Request: fold
Amino acid sequence: MGLRQAPAAGVDRARRLRPRRRGQAAAAAAKGKLDLRVRRFPKPYWAYLGVTAVFGVGNSTNAFLILRTHSLGASLTQTLLIYPLSNLVAALASYPAGYLSDVFGRLGVLLVSFLVFLAVYAGFGLTTDTMLLGFLFVFYGLFQGIFRLAGKALDSSFQETQR
Reply:
């Protein structure tokens, strides 16, 4: 072995002896277990994804709802207080929505959230009363709390049937 090859051989040997990092080992294990066969999911799961996608496309960003509220005459302070109130309602509604989805079924509760969504967006488009817009924001928070919880619960129930 010549002088030029000795350092390269030492580096190569050090690389082989160095333990793998935890993330690299997990990534290597995950590659071996990834199943990309989409036909293994049941048809109701694809229907759920389709309906959720339609509502996702129809759902505008919350900034547009806030701008609509402000453009109809709500003060900046009122506008800035309405949105956190909506988020608070979403957080508070999620726990009872979980209970209701356990009692009445996830799909039924998810459909109720879609009806609330429909009513709220129709109200946002039709009303010019800022007080009513405040109530609509509260109901929008109700939709978000129910939809997030029931949607994820329904999605996970489809995944459990695959195991």
